Amino acid sequence: MYWGELAAATMRRANLDGTKQKILISGPNGGSPALDLSGGQMYWVVSSSGNIHRANLDGSGQKVLVTGQNDPHAPVLDLVGGKIYWANFGNGDIRRANLDGTGRETLVSGLANSSLLALDVAAGKMYWTVQQANGDIRRANLDGTGMEILVGNQNTPTGIALDPSHGYVYWANFGGGDIRRANLDGSGEKILVKGLSGPVMVTLDLSALRLPNTKIAMHSDSGFTINWSALIGRAYRVQFSTNSSQTDWANLISRVTATNTTMTTVDSTATDPQRFYRVALLP
């Protein structure tokens, strides 16, 4: 796990049980970093300086990618499209750039207190909260066009998270003291948890998608079609064997990055009487 400490001005990591804590970077007083595990890098903002930083996961190779932002909030990554997105709370806009900091674009402007973002890359949508007393939940296309107010009359909404597979958006109302959910089109708003004291962030445990679940291995004239559940932006390896008890499996695909929540590949080389397939999630 990785985190930033504002008061200590450090970026740290530890094992999931809390052991082997390590200071990776000293100096930037950033918040929670966005991780590119396949690429071995992390990204974070320093709101006080208006900069966006990148470094390797071990803290080496630190680089300032973007400067001159006005109170930027936590960045989110589109690893398929090679983009980093962030909201400028001070300017009331949403921006993006290439993962190396080039190609900066302002996607949406004229907002009041744009806060935290979530991306549905497969559907080509981004969602965000407008953090004010009479705030709302909004979405637009990834290029900033087609902005919609999905849910209004929220009391200082902050953190936001998506479950695209089940069609839900979740958010925390800091002022209202509750956690809510709605369909991705804004309908069906529901209070899930209430009576809280200033909830800020929402993170979803989508455990069913953590490990690839092979849904279909179907034979046709063109070969075997293999479908599996996937996490967008994560890398997978597809292997086969003629004997499931073998330890030495051959690669059908050594590495493929998921562009959707369901991935498909075809094995057109199968000539064996039987073949077993497995899909592995790569670091």
Topology, element by element:
Layout: E1 2-5, E2 10-13, E3 22-26, E4 34-36, E5 41-46, E6 51-56, E7 63-66, E8 76-78, E9 83-88, E10 93-98, E11 105-108, E12 114-120, E13 125-130, E14 135-141, E15 148-154, E16 157-163, E17 168-173, E18 178-183, E19 190-193, E20 214-220, E21 223-229, E22 235-241, E23 250-257, E24 262-267, E25 276-281
Antiparallel strand pairs: 1-2, 2-3, 4-5, 5-6, 6-7, 8-9, 9-10, 10-11, 12-13, 13-14, 14-15, 16-17, 17-18, 18-19, 20-21, 21-24, 22-23, 22-25
Descriptive notes:
The protein is built from no helices and 25 strands. With 283 residues, the chain is mostly beta strands. The protein folds into two domains: 2-206, TolB, C-terminal domain (Neuraminidase); 208-281, Sandwich (Immunoglobulin-like). The strands form seven sheets. Strands 4-5-6-7 form a four-stranded antiparallel sheet, with no helix packed on it. Strands 8-9-10-11 form a four-stranded antiparallel sheet, with no helix packed on it. The mean pLDDT is 88.
